[in-house]
Amino acid sequence: MRRFILHKHSGCGPTHWDLMLEDGQSLATWRIAEDPLAVSRGESIEAVRIHDHRKAYLDYRDEVSGGRGRVDPQDAGALSLASSREDVWTFELGGAVLKGRFEMRRISPGGDKWMLRVTMDQ
């Protein structure tokens, strides 16, 4: 079973959320400026694809090394990855709050800007 985690990342620039999706040996990761827990069906919020993280972050809560702030889990659970193409990821999350079908779509060709959209009721 694949997993996901949503961390609130503070103490290193503006507070943001990191959505991490288990994909093979790493976690595909997006930085999100708005709280994804407040997103309703049909809404979209901007995300930025950042470097993949180690799977150890699925169970991590604490200070990040190198003075990079602190991460605190906000939600976690099962991940069903329908597709992970270059420009569109579709997946279902089974967390305590993030439940339902989601789509992550690249909005800048070849770039790091994406939109996260809830496509099914949570």
Overview of this protein structure:
- By secondary structure, this protein is mainly β.
- The protein has one domain.
- Helices cover 0% and strands 61% of the residues.
- It has an 8-stranded antiparallel barrel.
Low-confidence stretches: none
Number of strands: 9
Quickly count the domains.
1
Distance between the termini: 20 Å
Mean pLDDT: 90
* Discrete helix count: 0
Helical content stands at: under 10%
| Overall geometric form | globular
Keywords:
single chain, 122 residues, mainly beta, 8-stranded antiparallel barrel, 9 strands
Kindly summarize this structure in a few lines.
By secondary structure, the protein is mainly β. It has no helices and nine strands.
Please describe the topology of this protein:
Blueprint: E1 2-10, E2 16-23, E3 26-32, E4 44-54, E5 62-63, E6 70-84, E7 88-95, E8 99-106, E9 113-118
Antiparallel strand pairs: 1-2, 1-6, 2-3, 3-4, 4-9, 5-6, 6-7, 7-8, 8-9
